[in-house]
Amino acid sequence: MPHVLLIEDDRSVRDGMELVLRRHGHRVDAAGTGEEGLGLLAHRDGGRIEIVVLDLMLPGLDGFEVCRRIRARSTMPIIMLTARGDDLDVVSGLEAGADDYVVKPVTARVLEARIRAALRRAEPAPRTDPVETYEGLVIDRSGLTVTRNGTPLRLPPTELRLLLELSAAPGRVFSREQLLELVWEHDFLGDSRLVDAAVGRLRAKIETVAARPRYIQTVRGFGYRFGPL
To answer: What is residue 126's DSSP assignment?
Structure first.
């Protein structure tokens, strides 16, 4: 039974979503503020929270800051809830470290699908491919670890899966739509901002200078490819 932390300040929305999640077999901790949610993560008794569903527009400590604080200490998946799908909210939330987002009001089917996909990304199936080394970047596909110049990198599941998919075919250009399907399991015309934000976060960790990437290149008008320069 996957354990979900739901942080939503609107009580009626929170109660409805908690009921739906429990009906789908999840254990749920629910909080009405960012401070309360962070407290549950730090101090809850028994069990391990596996995923956070986080509203952006919270009183006091807003969802953007909550997301940043969670990401600073954990790689667990974070799905953000936003009442609007406008660029500023979405991009800011993704840059803060969220893995995916849904626009409220969200149907139970969509929310459950996003949670299940995020949890699958968090536990990628071990692979038997050899360790790959690219001029200081070492990708261990079996151990699911990445190091740069000997330093282990903490990559959230979405960023790790993105790197594994891109590096599995060096030189191949992947469209954003292909990456949405491979990494996020979105089988519809999804939002390319998810891909662009995840690539940006990944570059900040694996590249020496993120603005001049060596490993993940942008192919304008098409997408991205992996191939050390």
So the answer is: P
Nearest 5°: the CA angle 8, 1, 106 is 35
Based on its alpha-carbon atoms, the radius of gyration of the chain, rounded to whole angstroms, reads 18
Cα distances (Å, whole numbers) of residue 112 to 2, 95, 108, 116, 128? 11, 23, 6, 6, 31
Tens-digit pLDDT profile for residues 167-181: 999 999 999 999 999
**Final residue belonging to a domain, choices 76, 99, 122:** 122
Number of domains in the chain: 2
pTM: 0.84
The residue behind tokens 């330093």 is 151
Q: Which domain holds residue 191?
A: 131-226
pLDDT digits (tens, 9 = 90+) for 32-41: 999 999 999 9
Residues 54 and 152 in one domain: no
Contact 32, 66 (CB under 8 A): no
DSSP 161: H
User: Mean pLDDT throughout 131-152?
Assistant: 90
Q: How far is CA 123 from CA 12, 116, 195, in A?
A: 32, 11, 20
pLDDT digits (tens, 9 = 90+) for 82-126: 887 667 888 889 999 999 999 888 888 889 999 999 998 887 555
CA–CA dist 65, 140 (Å, integer): 32
